[in-house]
Amino acid sequence: MIKEEDVYQIGALTSTHGVRGELVFQFTDDVWDRVEADYLFCRMDGLLVPFFLEEWRFRSDTRALVKFEDINDADTASRMVGADVYFPKELTPTDVDEEDLTWQMFTGFEVIQAPENCTLGTVTSVLDQTANVLLVVETPEGKELLVPAHEDFILRADHRERRLYVQLPEDLLTLNE
């Protein structure tokens, strides 16, 4: 049985598409396409259930139409709408080609402040509508912290463990207090 710590969320199934059992997959990380994964996990009735990918095609940078094996009609697919989608950590590449990197890929990463190695929170979204990209980080206290997505502040990214190591100026950390 798959354990919660062996996967990470990469999106959700938001609606059905057509009559063949296709689903709209709203994703934050296209890792399944980069490693050509055979399956994804969906949370169904509280359990992580593997679903094998039959085909998929991208509709935008954050949406794809997916077709799972044995899901062949709209009624069966409709039971999957709203399910969160997870990817196994063991299939996550440890090195990511820089040309494949997007800031959206860091959604769900734990942000660690160096050199103290303290957790600042988790990236919940990315604001990339302007030239200055910001990572929206939810702190353990439930507050929102905006972190500039800039190479001067980011030390390294551990894609397998989904951790982003940063060194932010103290003034930036206390800006919203």
Q: What's the alpha carbon Rg, rounded to whole Å? A: 17 Å
The CATH homologous superfamily of the largest domain is termed RimM
Mean pLDDT across every amino acid position: 87
Strand order of the largest sheet: 1-2-5-4-3-6
Number of structural domains? 2
Helix content percent band: under 10%
- The CATH architecture of the largest domain would be Beta Barrel
Number of β-strand runs: 12
Low-confidence stretches: none
Structural class: mainly beta
Q: What proportion strand?
A: 35-45%
Shape: elongated
Keywords:
SH3 type barrels; 177 residues; 6-stranded mixed beta sheet; single chain; elongated; 6-stranded antiparallel β-barrel
Describe the protein's architecture and organization.
With 177 residues, this protein is mostly beta strands. The protein folds into two domains: 4-90, Elongation Factor Tu (Ef-tu), domain 3, CATH 2.40.30; 100-173, Roll (SH3 type barrels), CATH 2.30.30.240. The chain is 7% helix and 45% strand. The protein has three helices and twelve strands. The strands form two sheets. Strands 1-2-5-4-3-6 form a six-stranded antiparallel β-barrel. A six-stranded mixed beta sheet has the order 10-9-8-7-12-11, with no helix packed on it. It is elongated. The relative contact order is 0.16. The model has no long low-confidence stretch (mean pLDDT 87).
